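the two lines:
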Amino acid sequence: MAQKVVDAVKAKFGDAVVATSSEHGDEVITVKRDKLLAIATFLKDDPAMSFEVPVFVTTIDLAHWQPLGRRGAPDEGTRPAYDADASDGLRFEVCYQLRSLKHRHRIRVKVQVKETDTKVPSLTPLWPGFNWQERETFDMYGIRFDGHPDLRRIYLYDEFVGYPLRKDYPKDKRQPLVRRPDLVGDH
Amino acid sequence: MLELITSKLEDAANWGRKFSLFSYPFVTACCGMEFMSVAAPKYDIARFGAEFPRFSPRQSDLLMIVGTITEKQGPALRRVWEQMAEPKWVIAFGVCASTGGFYQNYHAMPGADQVVPVDVYIPGCPPRPEQVLDALIMLQDRVQRGDGHSQIRLKREKIMLAAANAEE
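prediction for all of em together
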């Protein structure tokens, strides 16, 4: 559907595009982190692209990632896509979904980052609608958006430690703000 | 003799309290729909004298916790409860307010009783209106017997105060 967008980005930026794929008719391009801002500016400002609608930002944690249709632990002898031991292990995929009402096409832009270095250029200066979405992504996954005007937690409280949607956050770990003083024992 | 008079007076006061519960609906989630149904004419909680939701905690003596309580809401809930007039009662409406329900994760509080003492728990997701009316009748019995959490606390404080005065 948006193959011409993928072709245009590839023609203009060449080796900045790491990979392309198609999911259920949606074109996905994975780009290099330091070229994200330039590619996003191109996608927004070029009249043939004109992606004016910021749809969503989110992150995929590849820590326990399995191909579609597979569940549970990975098969014996296979490793998940994310290898924690590898020094170049890319753990998170930050996804930007964009849409153009003018040309009626859409594109998903992905950037892969390491666990130790989760900085990604913020696209809020281009699309103000990404402001709270990037804050949510920061809140839940700890992705640090460079150039975001107000990067702080949006859903959780400031006292919260850690990032709850990361796969290594214990699923029933609670961080209470207040408890009854008349209750005895540790809850 | 004096004791008999004060205990009978307390009974009379409790009789009055149980038929004029002023509720503060702390509505956070989908159970609110069922709460509206209870308050509306079909099930009509007014038949039990609790028809008047006061949206100020200072004017109410029944805290209805309707829906999921998150950890972030904990301080607000505690503060609402502290502002309410004594004696006060608390109903946990629905399974989320009672135990956290199907949430077992970072954000949901495992029951509102982690923060405020709850007198009556209503299970269900959401509860049937009849269950809410049943719970209200149970609470009325409790009010009449004088063994709600805040009533017991007030009695204990009174006894401790009397003991401290007798020592002096």
